[in-house]
Design goal:
116 residues, mainly alpha
Length: 116
């Protein structure tokens, strides 16, 4: 799990018209899967399902992934925001999935490494 600069990730997503956002989504999903071990999300499957369902699956994971991330952060003794899944979902519904990605990345950056 690597620490990523939020400003750089947001700028890359905006400058590439969202293409970097797909890569960033994969990276975040991969980090959450690494934290959870077995039973974590499969980012490749989730991204493919997002395209196949014309974006509906992205709305689903915008709620699921922050919830999984909160569980892992809490198990490592970090303070979590219980509103993160709902905030991420609402942002995604209004077309601002980048907000949810940035919030999840901030939590991942606050975790010192994959072991907590």
């Amino acid at each position: 799990m690597e620490r990523r600069d939020l400003v750089k990730m947001v700028l890359l997503t905006v400058l590439t018209c969202g293409i970097w956002g797909i890569v960033w989504t994969y990276q975040i999903g991969n980090d959450i899967a690494a934290l959870r071990g077995s039973g974590g999300p499969n980012p490749v499957t989730d991204i493919l399902l997002g395209f196949v369902t014309c974006g509906i699956w992205f709305v689903v994971i915008s709620y699921q992934w922050p919830k999984l991330l909160n569980d892992q952060a809490a198990s490592r003794g970090k303070r979590v925001d219980d509103n993160l899944p709902v905030l991420s979902l609402v942002a995604c519904l209004f077309g601002f999935q980048i907000v949810g990605l940035a919030l999840m990345q901030q939590i991942l950056n606050d975790l010192p490494d994959g072991r907590g």
